[in-house]
Amino acid sequence: MSQDLNSKLLLLKHWLKMAPSWVRHGSPLKMDEELIFFPTSATQQEDGSWIIPVHAWFFELDKNSIMRLLSVKAVSELLEFMDVTEEQARLPIFQERIKWFLVDNESNKRIHIKLDGELHRSPRSKLSGHLQFDIPYQGKPEEAWLKLPVDMPEQDTREFFAETQLIPRQGLSVISDIDDTLKPSNVLDKKLLIQSVFLKEYHAVEGMPAFFQWLSNQGAYFHYLSSSPWQMYPLLKPLLDQYYPRGPVHLRNFNPSNRSFIKFFMSSEVYKTTKAMNIIHRYPEHQFILIGDSGEKDPEVYARIYREFPHNIKQILIRAVDGSNLHQKRFAEVFAEVPKDKWKVFAEPSHSLLDM
């Protein structure tokens, strides 16, 4: 080790010793700060124990969102791209949705999760305000979902819970896209897509809630996968809760301070492929139904996944979206290495699409 590097390390150690405790060990949640937990899924080990992932987001809601609109690069670009007027920017629906992109993310936060009488200390939250860590669990719960409370200071009466679904080693799972699969989003037209995100009421694609409920009745577990940013979770949650079976949600990291909204929404293929493969890796003894739409690259993503995991894929279902490339040539080329009985393009969802 060079003398210069050694000197820098000694200086760093000295600084850490002199730094306040909250810098060295992380600080607790303050009264004016908020915490959101994202639903996760636990994996069962060979000995019957579980690994429970915890994913949290720490932030403080900005009380002057209107004043910050034009100061955030991505939001300024967004308003120009959408042709949003000042009147529209003051609409309650726009204010409610844009506020999640204008929060102050809180780094260096720590919490303690209570499970079976023990406290599990989290790592410190990152600059994004997010933290993720795993908790081992030896219990044998009777319910499919486990709620893990946060140990809060006495003066803070708020309650926060992490939630995880205990998915057994073997079973049937659904990996589903969200945009234009579960809710109309106009993904093919980026301007309409972003307008639908911030200015339109959300609703479910006709027939999909009943189809997903039927799949749930067959014992399926659900993983909801979208290239949307995590800031969208509070907006998507009411729709998913009302219309679809419970399941973990997988979204993307996005920093509106230094990244383009437009480019972000146009770069999803690699993310969705990687995330879906990670899910299959975590549940290697499951059979998977992959559900998406023809709007962008879901067929290409799912065909690649089939090539990697041919024995895990029970069925690929692609919802036909008006205005997208529905030519038979496209699907013949994309699914050239996928058996014909393993994929279907559908206009209306029905349990007849599957041989259960």
UniProtKB/TrEMBL annotation:
GO terms for molecular function: phosphatidate phosphatase activity. Residues 173-319 form the Phosphatidate phosphatase APP1 catalytic domain. This is Phosphatidate phosphatase APP1 catalytic domain-containing protein. InterPro entries: APP1_cat, Mg2+_PAP. The lineage of its organism: Bacteria, Pseudomonadati, Pseudomonadota, Gammaproteobacteria, Thiotrichales. PANTHER family: PHOSPHATIDATE PHOSPHATASE APP1. It comes from the Bacteria. Pfam families: APP1_cat.
